[in-house]
Every structure is written in structure tokens, then in C-alpha cells.
Design the sequence.
């Protein structure tokens, strides 16, 4: 059993949106729906400023608020710590959309079902990387087992002292170097 | 920003109203056994309006609408307030529908069922506040006073709807149930106090909360708030109710006056205005709470 998580180096991210596009292809999403959102903000004090680009998707929280509020148990967490949706159980009540602190959930306009980043669980099961990781042109993303101290992702988190976006909101599993 | 919109606001409004109407009818049944119209109106509108609210909820839950069997799963996750609410509403609907049926058939109502109904009416009213109150992402909602505000508003709109419909059928009775009017006035005053307290404290908790409150009191929704909720929904009915109660007190001193008051010659217009205003205010309150839902920043 692994405890899958991700490391994102915002200093390496150039904001090319390749991860978003490949994610849309992988999940067969229409253009207006994406599981990855880009947030840009200026950090620092003039003249030492930087335009920070932060790609945000489902943070696969260990105590996921979306899973807590989901009345139908459509949202669940796998043994490997990936938060998934059982599309056949979702009624589209949007309670999870409201509860997610990261705005990571979207509604399919045709079925009404809510969906989000799945950490490409099917690819990971085949031993591959999530598509956003393998496609990233600047190697800003690393995926792997957070419980394994020798995994690339764990080492990168330690090296860059990467932190979750809002550690006070819960145990999210995407770590950002900023 | 608005994930839950007008449909959900209407649902929250109708759920509170339905519970309030049920409680109003139970109270009137005991306090004023002679006020049969008010009791019947409360008992009839309660399950009907809850049903309308549930239909709205089903329409909003698009994926369930397209595959209705999925709604069964609503009963499965006990850590979700929505699941708990589903149980509350189910028990409440069963009790309210049974009581309405007994009333229709002119049969005696089983007391135990009525007590169960009273308990779950209260549960439904407060659950609408818990539902959004537990959402940490929206600081405007994530406050302990919100469920209390929703209960007070639910009772107030429940009384208003019951009185409004009753006024068309039996205007004398509407003026006879003085203690209902007194409770209604107290609820309206309490609502003003609760809104003030909630906004004052919530606006100081964090940036997103402050933004929500400023959107309501001085920003894009300020007209809706000051004119719609405070002016029409609260101050207007408070003034009219207070004046009515004061004038009743004067009339009560002589028997002729009491008759005049009871005849309701001066009062049906006031009742219609007051109760419609309260209902509008109740809906605007839910609408504002959903409209101004600013999520916390995750940076």
C-alpha cells in the first residue's frame, strides 16, 4: 500500500498549460472543463517581486472534506490514498463542490455528475505516471509514494521544504515548492 | 462563486417554512382549539411546501434526476449532514403527511405521531443551517449562529405562511390568536438581533468573511439587504405587528372595541402585507447567504 502524493515546483512551472490540456485529453473532457486550474499572483515587495504560477487540482486530502459531506458515498478514498468518484452513485447535489477548499471539483454538463482529478489512478495501477506529470515540459511535477522516504517525491519535498497550500485546512497531499 | 443558487435558496426557505408551519399548527391546536382554520391550514401547507422544496432539490441534483434510483444512496453516509437531513426530512414528511391526511378525513390525530412530527420539524429547521454551517470553505456559513438564525426565520416564515393563507379563509380567527402574533413579533425582533450579531462577529473572523459581509451590507447586494431583508422583511412587519398589538390592547379595555377588533374590519390588509413581507424577507435571507458565499483563499 502506498500513500500517493505529488510535488509541484512553482519556480519551475512556466504556465504553459500542457498539464491541463493532457489532463483534458486523458479524461476526455470538453474544452470548458478542466481538473487543473492555474492561479497567478504577484509575491514579494517591489522591486523584489515574482509572478507566481500555481497549478491547482484535487489535493487528495487524507481527511477529504468532499468525502465527509458526500451524502451518497460516491466520493471515496482508495487504499493507496487516492480520492476517487464512483460516478454511478453521484446525484449531482454539489455539496462536495461547495465543501472543497481548492475549487477542484467540476460538474459534467451532460450527466450532472461531479468529477475531479483522479491522480490518473488507472495509469498508476499500470505502473505509469499521471499524465500531468509525464507531460510537464519543465519537470515541475513529481508523483510517488509519500510513505517511502527514498521515493523521488519524498526527497524533493524534503529538499525544497515543500508545503501543502493550506496545511491548516487538512491533510492534503500535493506539496508545493514556492 | 455561486455553486448553490436560487433553487437551493428556495429549498432552504421552504424547508424552514414547512417546519415552522407545522409547529404553528401544533401550537394553535393546543392553545386555541377553536381556531380550526389556522390549525388546518398549517397542517395542510406544511407537507405540501416541504414536498415542493424536495422537488426543487431533486431538480437541482442533476445526476440524480437523470437516474432517480441513485437517491437511495442519500441514506448511506452518516458523516454527511445531508444524509442526516434526509432522515430528518423523511420522518418529518411521514408525520406531516399522516397528520394532514387525518385532518382531511376529519379523524383524530395520533398524539405520538404528532410529537414525532414536532421533534422532526425542529430538526429539519435547524438542519438547513447545519447543512451549510459545516462548510469550512465558506466562512460566512461556517458560524454557530447561522442554524439559530435559520430556525428563527423558519418559525417566523412558518407563522407568516399559515396566517396569510388563513386570512383569506377566516379573517376573524387571524385576529383572535393574539399569542401567535406576539410570538411572531418576538421572532422578528430576535432575527434582527441575530443578523446583527452574525454579521458583526463573522466580518472579523477572516478576509473572506469580511468580503462576504461587505458584499451584503455595502456592496453589490446592499439594496437587496437593506431594502429587501431589513426594510421589507423585518422592519415593516415589526412596525405593523407592534401597532396592531398595541391597538388590540386599547380595544381590549371595552367589549365593543373587542368586537370591532375581532371583526377584523381594519386588519386583513395589514395581515396580508405583514405576512407577505415576512415571506419575502425569509427568501431574501437564504438568497443573500448563498449569493455572498465567498470561499477562503488557498494561498
Sequence:
Amino acid at each position: 500500500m502506498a500513500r500517493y502524493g505529488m510535488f509541484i515546483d512553482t519556480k519551475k512551472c512556466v504556465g504553459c498549460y500542457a498539464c491541463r490540456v493532457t489532463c483534458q485529453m486523458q479524461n476526455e473532457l470538453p474544452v470548458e472543463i478542466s481538473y487543473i486550474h492555474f492561479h497567478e499572483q504577484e509575491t514579494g515587495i517591489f522591486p523584489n517581486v515574482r509572478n507566481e504560477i500555481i497549478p491547482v487540482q484535487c489535493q487528495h486530502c487524507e481527511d477529504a472534506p468532499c468525502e465527509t459531506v458526500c451524502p451518497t458515498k460516491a466520493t471515496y478514498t482508495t487504499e493507496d490514498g487516492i480520492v476517487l468518484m464512483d460516478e454511478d452513485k453521484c446525484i449531482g447535489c454539489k455539496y462536495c463542490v461547495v465543501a472543497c477548499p481548492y475549487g477542484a471539483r467540476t460538474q459534467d454538463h451532460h450527466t450532472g455528475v461531479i468529477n475531479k482529478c483522479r491522480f490518473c489512478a488507472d495509469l498508476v495501477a499500470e505502473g505509469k505516471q499521471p499524465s500531468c506529470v509525464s507531460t510537464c515540459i519543465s519537470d515541475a511535477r513529481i508523483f510517488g509514494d509519500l510513505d517511502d522516504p527514498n521515493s523521488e517525491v519524498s526527497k524533493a519535498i524534503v529538499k525544497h521544504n515543500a508545503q501543502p497550500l493550506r496545511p491548516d485546512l487538512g491533510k492534503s497531499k500535493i506539496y508545493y515548492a514556492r | 462563486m455561486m455553486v448553490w443558487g436560487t433553487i437551493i435558496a428556495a429549498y432552504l426557505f421552504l424547508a424552514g417554512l414547512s417546519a415552522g408551519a407545522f409547529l404553528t399548527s401544533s401550537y394553535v391546536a393546543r392553545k386555541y382549539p377553536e381556531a380550526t382554520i389556522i390549525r388546518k391550514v398549517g397542517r395542510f401547507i406544511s407537507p405540501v411546501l416541504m414536498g415542493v422544496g424536495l422537488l426543487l432539490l431533486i431538480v437541482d441534483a442533476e445526476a440524480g434526476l437523470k437516474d432517480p434510483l441513485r437517491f437511495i444512496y442519500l441514506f448511506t453516509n452518516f458523516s454527511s449532514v445531508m444524509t442526516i437531513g434526509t432522515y430528518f426530512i423523511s420522518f418529518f414528511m411521514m408525520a406531516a403527511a399522516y397528520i394532514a391526511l387525518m385532518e382531511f378525513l376529519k379523524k383524530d390525530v395520533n398524539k405520538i405521531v404528532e410529537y414525532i412530527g414536532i421533534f422532526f420539524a425542529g430538526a429539519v429547521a435547524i438542519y438547513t443551517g447545519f447543512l451549510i454551517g459545516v462548510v469550512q470553505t465558506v466562512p460566512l456559513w461556517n458560524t454557530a449562529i447561522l442554524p439559530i438564525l435559520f430556525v428563527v426565520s423558519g418559525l417566523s416564515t412558518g407563522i407568516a405562511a399559515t396566517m396569510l393563507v388563513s386570512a383569506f379563509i377566516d379573517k376573524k380567527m387571524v385576529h383572535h390568536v393574539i399569542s401567535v402574533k406576539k410570538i411572531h413579533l418576538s421572532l422578528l425582533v430576535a432575527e434582527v438581533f441575530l443578523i446583527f450579531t452574525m454579521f458583526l462577529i463573522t466580518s472579523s473572523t477572516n478576509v473572506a468573511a469580511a468580503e462576504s459581509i461587505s458584499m451584503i451590507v455595502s456592496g453589490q447586494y446592499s439594496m437587496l439587504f437593506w431594502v429587501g431583508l431589513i426594510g421589507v422583511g423585518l422592519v415593516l412587519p415589526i412596525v405593523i405587528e407592534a401597532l396592531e398589538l398595541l391597538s388590540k390592547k386599547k380595544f381590549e379595555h371595552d367589549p365593543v372595541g373587542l368586537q370591532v377588533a375581532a371583526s377584523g374590519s381594519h386588519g386583513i390588509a395589514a395581515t396580508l402585507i405583514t405576512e407577505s413581507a415576512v415571506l419575502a424577507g425569509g427568501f431574501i435571507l437564504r438568497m443573500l447567504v448563498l449569493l455572498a458565499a465567498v470561499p477562503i483563499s488557498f494561498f
